[in-house]
Amino acid sequence: MHEKHPSHGVIRPCRPQDTARILAIINAAAEAYRPVLPADLWREPYMPAAELDHEIAAGVVFTGYEMAGALVGVMGLQAVGDVELIRHAYVAPERQGHGVGGALLDHIRRSAGPMLVGTWAAADWAIGFYERHGFRLVDPERKAVLLRTYWTVPERQIETSVVLASPGAQV
Question: What is the pTM of this model?
Answer without folding.
Answer: 0.93
